[in-house]
Write a structure and sequence with these properties.
The protein is of the alpha/beta class. It is built from 15 helices and 25 strands. Among the domains are: about 230 residues, FAD/NAD(P)-binding domain, CATH 3.50.50; about 110 residues, 3-Layer(aba) Sandwich (Glutaredoxin).
């Protein structure tokens, strides 16, 4: 039990397949998601929000024990906004943008995750994972198409050409279900991955870290602090994050030879914390764990009708906050594609693009995470000498600061090589290239909405830029509105500096000019946006034929 949080107990209900002595036969569900961590919950909620019936299965009946995932990045918060949980996360979490790195007694480097003004969400928040799961479960309960089954373990998986058959063990007995599509979010040790005999390859790092969640009142600023070789923990590194409820997360590097069971004992942990604080302030030890870490992934994330997401598909070290963040972005990439396939509006090959795009993102995360880990935990005297020299120079020389790596923090992948993109044929400047995640900006919109990303929903959208929305003539307005009548609808949104858009057209007003600035837009510029808010294509003028062709490419219907 924690002093700052009371764990919920989710009710187990006897499944209909076990409704009587003989059972009710084999249940059939369009989508089954296994694993009710942040990633599985995100997938199930996204599917249900889009009108899909979904069954979520988990072998536990509460949220995660201990803080576990701590840092949630700007892009993840933007996804959680669309899932209906963003406000709770930011309101409860500790917002931060600045990180500081120390070498021995001196600060040598700092960074700002969000140096630009006018973004809705911060660069990062810190919040214990159990809160995120709690908020997601509450959101899931609001959705009528989402059934959650607790205390239920999948013990057998039989993939087929048309269906996947699962054997599930519940407190009341064993039963069988079938599903058209299985989304696997059962964690780093993924029993389902093992059942299917699928490999996961990569590197396990020979080091150990102690996590201590400490409750204390401290006036430390809301920043990320990382120490190399501090006086209170010589020749090792330490990481400090503030979380909600005055809980501080401290990671102490221990070395590979440390005994995990010994190091978790309070008599070993408390002196480390006292040495770090350097005073007699009172604190309470809330949760302790020792972990090793690895950087590895599956070769493919799609195996027929079985789709792997999150830690079941890929793992990274905790330095850089790339675990839960990348997993939630997996589901954001997957769900809109799965929904189109299930609705018969796209071929199943669209799901291969999920694997390709998220394998690319996983490789990027693994590369950055491996580099961070190699810098933090050098494995030779030469590497450590180089690392310490970089840290010593960083305080005075900008070139050395660029080499300091205490964890390159999570950023969304730019899917610039995706086969779903339509390459530019017009000249553009800036970062909003095909494959890029959308940049946010302040706007004024119907209903009082004040941010671009919150005005863009889980569908294909066309941003059409105008100076004066009332100057759009009837023919142009009809052509823009007509995009919604296609088999795969595209909603046109007029982005203007003023005026009233013609009846039937959605509009937002770029009162500060930030949208035009960040999208290098002028009158007539068009952006085709995917449901996961990545840019699919862009042009300097409206052409319905080009938009239809780009939409076909983005959905594998070309």
């Amino acid at each position: 039990m924690l002093s700052t949080y009371q764990y919920p107990k989710f009710e187990y209900r006897r499944p209909p397949e076990l409704s009587d002595e003989t059972g009710a036969g084999t249940g059939h569900y369009p989508v089954v998601v296994v694993g009710a961590g942040p990633v599985g919950l995100a997938a199930a909620i996204d599917l249900a929000q889009q009108g899909q019936q979904v069954l979520l299965i988990d072998n536990d009946d509460t949220v995660s024990i201990g803080s576990r995932g701590v840092c949630y990045a700007k892009r993840t918060l933007e996804v959680l906004d669309r899932l209906g949980c963003g406000d709770e996360m930011v309101d409860k979490g500790v917002t931060w943008n600045v990180g500081r790195t120390f070498f021995r007694e001196e600060e040598v480097y700092n960074f700002n995750l969000c140096p630009q003004p006018d973004h809705h969400r911060p660069g990062m928040i810190n919040l214990q994972q159990y809160y995120l799961e709690d908020y997601l479960v509450r959101r899931a309960r609001q959705l009528p198409g989402l059934e959650m089954r607790w205390k239920s373990s999948v013990v057998s998986v039989q993939p087929g050409a048309e269906l996947v058959t699962l054997q599930v063990e519940a407190p009341d007995g064993m039963y069988q279900i079938e599903t058209d599509w299985l989304v696997v979010a059962d964690g780093a040790r993924s029993p389902i991955r093992t059942m299917l005999g699928l490999d996961i390859e990569g590197k396990i790092f020979m080091d150990r870290f102690l996590i201590a969640d400490v409750v204390m009142k401290a006036d430390f600023p809301t920043e990320r602090w990382f120490w190399f070789d501090p006086p209170f923990h010589r020749n090792q590194s330490v990481l400090l994050h503030r979380q909600a409820d005055n809980v501080f997360r401290i990671d102490f590097q221990l070395g590979w030879d440390a005994d995990p069971q010994e190091e978790k004992k309070p008599e070993k942990v408390i002196p480390r914390i006292k040495a770090m604080l350097g005073d007699d302030r009172e604190f309470e030890l809330e949760w302790v764990s020792v972990y090793t870490f690895q950087c590895r992934r599956m070769h493919e994330f799609r195996h027929g009708r079985v789709l792997f997401v999150g830690d079941a598909a890929h793992q990274v070290s905790p330095f850089g906050a790339r675990g839960a963040n990348s997993g939630i972005q997996d589901t954001d990439n997957l769900v809109w594609k799965l929904k189109l396939v299930m609705d018969g509006k796209a071929p199943a090959s669209l799901l291969d693009s999920y694997s390709r795009e998220r394998v690319f993102a996983a490789d990027e995360n693994i590369m950055n995470s491996t580099r961070s880990t190699d810098f933090i935990t050098p494995k030779s005297t030469t590497s450590k000498t180089f690392r310490n020299a970089v840290l010593g120079l960083a305080e005075h020389y900008p070139f050395a600061r660029a080499l300091v790596n205490s964890g390159r923090l999570s950023v969304p992948a730019y899917l610039t090589e995706s086969t779903l993109n339509t390459p530019d044929t017009d000249d553009f400047a800036g970062d909003m290239v095909p494959g890029a995640p959308m940049d946010d900006a302040p706007v004024e919109a119907a209903g009082g909405e004040r941010w671009l990303l919150k005005a863009v929903g889980n569908a294909f959208q066309l941003l059409y830029f105008a100076d004066d929305a009332s100057a759009i003539d009837a023919a142009q307005a009809q052509a823009l509105a007509g995009l919604a009548d296609a088999p795969i609808p595209v909603q046109a949104i007029v982005v203007a500096r003023g005026g009233v858009a013609p009846t039937g057209l959605a509009s937002v007003f770029d009162s500060k000019g930030r949208v035009a600035e960040r999208y290098d837009a002028r009158v007539g510029t068009c952006y085709l946006i995917r449901p996961d808010q990545h840019v699919a294509a862009r042009w300097r003028s409206f052409d319905a034929g080009r938009i239809a062709a780009a939409l076909a490419v983005a959905t594998c219907n070309a």
